TrEMBL record, chain A:
GO MF: ATP binding; ATP hydrolysis activity
Protein name: Peptide ABC transporter ATP-binding protein
A GO CC term attached to the entry: plasma membrane
Family statement drawn from the similarity comment of this UniProt entry: Belongs to the ABC transporter superfamily.
GO biological process: peptide transport
UniProt subcellular location: Cell membrane
Xref: CDD domains: ABC_NikE_OppD_transporters (cd03257)
ABC transporter domain segment(s): 5-257
Principal place of residence: membrane
Organism: Jeotgalibacillus soli
Xref: InterPro entries: AAA+_ATPase, ABC_Ni/Peptide_Import, ABC_transporter-like_ATP-bd, ABC_transporter-like_CS, Oligopep_ABC_C, P-loop_NTPase
Gene3D superfamilies from the UniProt entry: P-loop containing nucleotide triphosphate hydrolases
Automatic annotation (TrEMBL), chain B:
Regions that span the bilayer: 47-68, 143-168, 180-198, 204-223, 258-287, 307-330
Gene Ontology cellular component terms for the protein in this record: plasma membrane
Domain ABC transmembrane type-1, chain residue ranges per copy: 141-330
Primary subcellular site in the record, as a coarse category: membrane
Membrane topology classification: Multi-pass membrane protein
Pfam families hit by this protein: BPD_transp_1, OppC_N
GO terms, biological process: peptide transport; protein transport; transmembrane transport
Similarity comment: family membership: Belongs to the binding-protein-dependent transport system permease family. OppBC subfamily.
Keywords for this protein: Cell membrane, Membrane, Peptide transport, Protein transport, Transmembrane, Transmembrane helix, Transport
CDD domains cross-referenced by the UniProt entry: TM_PBP2
Organism listed in the record: Jeotgalibacillus soli
Name this polypeptide is given: Oligopeptide ABC transporter membrane protein
Location(s) in or outside the cell: Cell membrane
UniProtKB/TrEMBL annotation, chain C:
Keyword Transport applies: yes
Transmembrane segments: 9-30, 100-121, 133-153, 173-191, 226-252, 272-298
Major place of residence: membrane
Cellular component, GO annotation: plasma membrane
Segments forming domain ABC transmembrane type-1: 94-295
Classification of source organism: Bacteria, Bacillati, Bacillota, Bacilli, Bacillales
UniProtKB keywords: Cell membrane, Membrane, Transmembrane, Transmembrane helix, Transport
Annotated organism of origin: Jeotgalibacillus soli
The protein's name: Peptide ABC transporter permease
Family per record: Belongs to the binding-protein-dependent transport system permease family.
Biological process (GO), any one: transmembrane transport
Amino acid sequence: MKNILEVQDLTISFHTFAGEVQAIRGVNFELKKGETLAIVGESGSGKSVTTKSIMRLLPKSNSEIKAGSQILFEGKNLAELSDKEMEKIRGKEISMIFQDPMTSLNPTMKIGKQIAEPLIKHQKVSKQQAKERALELLKLVGLPQPEKRINQYPHQFSGGQRQRIVIAVALACNPKILIADEPTTALDVTIQAQILDLMKNLQKKIDTSIIFITHDLGVVANVADRVAVMYGGKIIEVGTVDEIFYNPQHPYTWGLISSMPSLDTMDENLYAIPGTPPDLLNPPKGDAFAVRNEYAMNIDLLEEPPMFKVSDTHYAATWLLHPDAPKVDPPVAVKRRQNKFPEMNSVKGGK
Amino acid sequence: MVNHPEKRFPKEMFEPAQIDQSLIEKIEKPSLSFWQDAWLRVRKNKAAIVSLVLLILLIFMALVGPFLSGYDGEVQRAEHSNLPPRIAALENISWLPFDGTLTSRNGDTLTPYEDKRIEEYYWFGTDGLGRDLFTRLWEGVQISLLIAFLATALDMIVGVSYGAISGYFGGRVDSAMQRVIEILNGIPNLVIVILLILVLEPGILSITLALAITGWTTMARVVRGQVLKMKNQEFALASKTLGATDLRIIFRHLLPNMVGVIIINTMFTIPNAIFFEAFLSFIGLGLQPPDASLGTLIEEGFKVMLLYPYQLLFPSIVISLLMITFNLLADGLRDAFDPKMRD
Amino acid sequence: MWKYLLKRVILMLITLFLIASLTFFLMKLIPGSPFSAASKLSESQLAIMNAKYGLDQPIPIQYANYMINILKGDLGISFQFNNTDVTQLIMNRVGPSATLGLQAMIFGTIFGIFLGVIAALRQNTWLDYGSTLVAVLGKSIPSFVFAAMLQYYIAVKLGLLPVAFWRGWEYSILPTIALSIFPISIAARFMRTEMVEVMGSDYITLARAKGASSFEVAFKHALRNALIPVITVLGPLAVSLMTGSLVVERVFAIPGLGEQFVKSIQVSDYPVIMGTTLLFAALFIFIILVVDILYSIIDPRIRLSGGKN
């Protein structure tokens, strides 16, 4: 399948009073046409920064996309576009859904106008046409009584409804890429499921590629085709959903999977990854996860691991995959899953 | 996708690493007390630090200044009236106002020192009664600061107690106390102050009192808000279950936690009080002669502004400096203490 | 909404009643008769004067008369200008004060908001620092010092504008500037804070993510949201203008309410003091009410819920 977006060697720093925070340290990934890529990681791992940089939404005053970073979209390097050129891409080619629907709509603007805004801006349609399209979109995202509600203000809607509106705004111009930054985190569990279903259905209808950011592996299993795991400003493992869930290779991914509650782990204590995320003001030498890693080897403290290939679609950055590395026993929860992997693989790949 | 160069490493590199467990849970930042933390933050704010230094200087001058020139601020010498400022070391620098000359309205340069054969140097000149303005200025600053500090202290005592009681006891006590504040806030401060001073006769005490009476409601409101927020937090409840009295909880547990807001509020009250004192003097409700405050000096200076501008200049500069430094310092403290700014 | 409004109006009337009573009794507390201090009147002359102004009657009756007269719009008779109605005196003086106040309010808030928006949009540039400097100076330098400075340097030294009095529009320029420096600084600071906060909010990021240009983001999305809270400082600002007008009118010898008020204080003309005080208080309460109503009209979040507390 064709790649619609390729990110190469993305490096981003924030300049703070304390010094330079190296938030993103050489990230590579690609997004294929029509697929959903989930980026998973704990807070501060750089997943939001990565996607904000694709949209060029990072604050100019203190952030810097380092030279050599490439964000290739339809032959253009987004990292180098001017503000004016970027405005033509935002909302039209690439659009975004944010985490908190309670704060992501303008409180003093009617929602109809907020949905119509990108249409008028990018497609040069008349106000009337834009309004009709807004109505269509509201129906599409399943908001009841759109004719009446189009003239209401955000505070008159519930959180779930507002997220539907935000999705309608994002989809207004049929974008080629939709970035969803933890779109369900701030919602009640029942509403979360509804929004996820909505997004899955919409993707089928309009054929966009989605980058889905989350820290919730349960959500990932639900929506994604492929998963990239981020830690300390890098992607440390990437693969299809099945590969990440049933054959994870990086000890950090093991940790994530073991700490995910599931029905068959009811009687065990949930696993927690010890320690705190690395300080990106002074990134550690070697593998950033080493100090929290019970499988750490001497080399982890000295050399940064490269991406080792596991399969054509599956790569992981851990020295454990080096031919000289000793064989280690992953945690029980991971082992249980790994045992299921071969049979699954024989059936089919993907979700 | 970038892939691995099959580089060889020595065998021992792949042995399990010894990781210092303390590193995992290492706390990155040293722990600081409330005051250390606040001081570190204030120190970063250059404007606040410069203001603090200037302010200390001004307060020092208010205490020492009246004794420096050697002239008494209340001694009147008619033959030395309305002399312009003259300072020995600076009198030959023409762009400074210290050369002992005056410019009359039609542009002539007057030299009253030479004309009257006066040997003395009056650093900031003299007023219409021949009193040394340098001494009077610092005496005035003293009085203005005294009024401001007194009024602010009263403000703080009344406001904090009122707010704490209102917030802590809540319910009917609170709503009654809040109605009182609401009505007081409905009356313009200016009106209350003017009426009170008319009744009490202008003087240090009456001005202080008038300022305090109108000023405490802001503090009361802030403190009440804080108490409402904190009184149901665990540390207060814990102390209650251990049998602490209400007063003890308020004064030992709640108030120490709001030192920050109280200080910020106080710091904004002081310049306000300085302004109001000067304002009252300017409309004729200030101190009565021969007492001097910054306000009365400005008012006297304004009356002769066209002939002797220096008489207005110096008190104006000093009051502006006082106001600016207090405001900048208060801004700096607010930024330093504001919990929202804490990362 | 209506219920809220009614409640506010009733509270306003109660406050006014309290202020009127307070003014009356405080004036009665002042020792001696207004005629005893300055004049060389004999006992009998004093008695005649007191009778003329109704000061010989028992206090409760004086109080009742005073309150009834206020309701009729009669604020008594001035001591300093013999036999002149206080109401009439005040009416004669309202013009210049109102002109000055309105000019300063409009110029001050608009210019202040402009400064604040610029500072917020160009954070940490010299524009930002410059506007912060203006704000700090405006908040710190007392209005009468600033007024005197303007008068001395611009009118007297440079001769660019009239020094004093009230004889045409150009006479109002310096006083307006002197009076508006405080609103400018407050509006600029407040606006900057609000604008910075709004510019950092999620819905602004979303607006940018929609492809809106930085101009559209700032003026279509951010400005309105940042302006709403600024309405809350308009009330206090208007009130500060009343304080300012007292001194600025004195500096520029403008025949307004403030100048008359200051003179009345100096000669203890109590009816004028009381009348002006009442007028100021009523204006103050009225402005606060208007601002509250304005706020609930403009902010859609509180429009339907009927006022916010």
